[in-house]
Structure formats: C-alpha cells, structure tokens
C-alpha cells in the first residue's frame, strides 16, 4: 500500500557513522527493496559540510540522498529557529516530494517544528518517529545521566533537570517539555527499538498505545568462523566510538586489574576513535591505555566493511556502557558473527543480551566486577560454547522494513475506517 517514504535523520552515515544514522539509512534501502520510492534526508552543519548559497540542500551518495544544511539550531529546545530559511526549504521539499509516510529518526538539526510543518502541509501523510535515545526527555545529550557525576537518571522534571544545569531555570525546563510535547503530538505513531526505552517515554507522558516496539536490524552478513583454539577463549573486543559514556575507561581499568592479578593469557582489542571528544577525556583514555598493559591494543577507527574481519580475531565482545543504551547495533553485529557478549546489565543492553543464555551481564561503572566476569568468561569450561549455542538469529533489514511497512499500512487503514 505504501509507496513513497521520506526518511529523515540527524546526519548521514557517510559523514557521521553513528548507530542511528546507519540504521536509518539501511532501513531506507530496505524500503526500496520492498518496492517503495524513498528519499533519505540527513541533516548536517559546519562540522561536516560548508553551506551552499541559495539553498539548504546538498546531495550525497549513489542513491541521491539529500543533506539539509542546518547551521541555525537551538539544541535546548531541539528547535529549528531558521523559520524563514531552513523551514521554508523543508516545506518546499515536502510539497514537491509529497510522501505518503514521513519516517523521522531524530529531531537534532532538523527541529521539532518539522513535525507540525509536515502535518499542516500534508494532512493525509502518516508521520512515524523512531525513538532512538532520550533527547526529548533529557537535555544532557539524551543520556538520562547527570553530567557531573555520571549517575544514571530515572526520570525528568523541571527541578531535577535544573539540578544538572543550575544555570537554566526550572521554568525553562518546563517550557522545553511542553514545547516538545506540543510538536510530538503531530506524530501518528512512535517506534521504540526496545521495551526499556518505550517505558521511559510512557513514564514521560507519551501514551503507551502510541509506541510500537520494533527491533532494529542489520543487513545480512555471513558469520565469521571462530578461531580453532585448544586453550582458553580469552580474546575480547570493544567496538564503537570512544566517549565517557561507553564505559571504555572502566574496561581498561578491568584489564589493568586482570594483569595485576597475574592473568597473562588474555587480549583486549579496542576498535574505535574518539571524534569530537574533550581533551580531558582523550588524555584520560591515553593514560588508562598506558596503564592497562601489553595485553591491550587500541586498533583505532574502523570502517563498517572491516567489521567481519575484526570480529574474526576475537572470542567475546564487551559492551560496558554506563548509560541507558537503547539498542546498540554492535550487539546485533556481534550476534550475527556468533560472538557472545559481556554487557552492562542496564537499559536496552540487558534486554538484548540474555544473561547466561547468549552473553553475560556485568555491573556498569565497576571495573573490579567486570574483571571478575571477564575472568569467568575465560576460565569456566564449556561456558563460551553454551553461550554461542544460545545466540538467536538476528532480524534482517528486509524483515524490519516489512514490519514498518505493515505499521504504516495499519495507520492508513485505521484512518480509512
């Protein structure tokens, strides 16, 4: 039934290969494979591209993807403040392409006003928004964690949010919430990739019946064979960007503790760079890396097409994040290659990685306990084989696209009824 879809994200994977951008772009390809006409719109700014005079739009990629150059954006309100430029250009795009469905994956750089603009210009189009993180709820980059001591937050309120940002008054946080909920009311249906994230938005005030849970997915990959080993399964790998919230410092602390305890048979390979991180974090990472010992190698950034070869070198994937991750693509990629995972027992990670079934859980922010879990992973006979056998087949992009198309069609049928 659905044939014309506009997919919008807050960047393009060719410019910023984050999980949301990668998944949104892959899903757009999945829609095309199902016979839909699809336009992918990724927002960007001066960090990645210079503005072109006369229009907010640029093009990129072999599929003719569009880039929206958005240099005027209010990150506090997630607001597109360039009403007479960027919003006018977005309006022209909507009226020219006239999608049946607008599937938006993020509000950053695009702006919450885009939702109500689309509703006004295309009243019969269905607007679906995937909630990939907690940006509408939390001003701290959508982390739901305090910027000072990194303690995880269970909910937002004007008073508690002001505790994190004392320079911003409580009434501005109240205005932020009401502003965003007003624009989010234009969305016909939300999608959450995890039950955990769905519940966070229900607690925030979105209606439960307006949020469907559909798992993210990855393009199909041939599983990389496991190395034949006669001894321990003692090769660990970390994959992803390096930042203070991904738990990489705690992972290096665990590696240091293992070596201090005399463990010499393991290796830890850290794959990823630290783009846009502070000098303080980069210095802390370099210091922790130097103290972690010879068993640890920082392999640097990697390209997506290199991942299978990198997975072939390790036995375990470690995901030690200290914030409420929603649905990290690294977990599905590891499972595609039949690598069990050691993950923090919080958020969507605890939902995706089943403790003692296809991976092991560890407490976040606790290097000593993480070291004990890693030691058990190496030492317990038969554990690795049992967890590998417990890994489920992961959903494909084609299956994920069909699930979304079914949702879109259900919305159209409900309107017709």
TrEMBL record:
Keywords: Transferase. Residues 17-217 form the Glycosyltransferase subfamily 4-like N-terminal domain. One of its GO terms (molecular function) is glycosyltransferase activity. The keyword Endoplasmic reticulum does not apply. SUPFAM superfamilies: UDP-Glycosyltransferase/glycogen phosphorylase (SSF53756). This is Glycosyltransferase. It comes from Bosea caraganae.
């Amino acid at each position: 039934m659905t044939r014309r879809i506009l997919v919008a994200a807050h960047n393009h994977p060719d410019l910023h290969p984050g999980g949301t951008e990668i998944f949104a772009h892959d899903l757009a390809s999945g829609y095309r494979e199902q016979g839909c006409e699809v336009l992918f719109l990724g927002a960007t700014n001066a960090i990645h591209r210079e503005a072109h005079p006369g229009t907010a739009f640029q093009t990129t990629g072999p599929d003719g993807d569009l880039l929206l150059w958005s240099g005027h954006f209010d990150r506090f309100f997630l607001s597109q403040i360039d009403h007479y430029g960027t919003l006018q250009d977005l309006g022209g795009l909507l009226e020219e392409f006239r999608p049946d469905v607008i599937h938006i994956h993020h509000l950053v750089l695009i702006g919450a006003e885009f939702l109500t603009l689309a509703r006004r210009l295309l009243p019969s189009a269905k607007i679906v928004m995937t909630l990939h993180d907690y940006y509408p709820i939390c001003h701290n980059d959508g982390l739901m964690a305090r910027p000072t001591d990194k303690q995880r937050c269970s909910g937002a309120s004007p008073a508690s949010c002001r505790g994190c940002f004392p320079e911003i008054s409580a009434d501005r946080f109240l205005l932020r919430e009401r502003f965003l909920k007003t624009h989010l009311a234009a969305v016909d249906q939300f999608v959450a990739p995890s039950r955990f994230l769905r519940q966070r938005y229900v607690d925030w005030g979105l209606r439960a019946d307006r949020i469907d849970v559909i798992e993210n997915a990855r393009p199909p990959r041939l599983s990389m064979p496991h190395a034949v080993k006669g001894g321990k399964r003692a090769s660990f790998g970390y994959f992803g960007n390096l930042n203070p919230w991904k738990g990489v410092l705690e992972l290096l602390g665990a590696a240091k503790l293992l070596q201090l305890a005399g463990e010499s048979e393991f290796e830890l390979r850290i794959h990823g760079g630290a783009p846009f991180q502070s000098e303080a974090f980069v210095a802390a990472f370099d210091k922790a890396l130097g103290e972690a010992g010879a068993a640890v190698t920082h392999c640097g950034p990697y390209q997506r097409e290199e991942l299978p070869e990198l997975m072939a070198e390790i036995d375990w994937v470690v995901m030690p994040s200290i914030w409420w991750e929603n649905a990290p693509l690294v977990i599905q990629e590891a499972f595609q290659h039949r690598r069990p995972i050691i993950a923090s027992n919080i958020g969507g990670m605890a939902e995706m990685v089943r403790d003692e079934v296809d991976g092991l859980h560890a407490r976040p922010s606790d290097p000593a306990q993480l070291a004990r879990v890693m030691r058990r992973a190496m030492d317990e006979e038969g554990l690795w084989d049992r967890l590998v056998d417990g890994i489920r087949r992961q959903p494909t992009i084609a299956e994920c696209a069909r699930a979304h198309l079914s949702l879109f069609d259900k919305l159209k049928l409900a309107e017709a009824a």
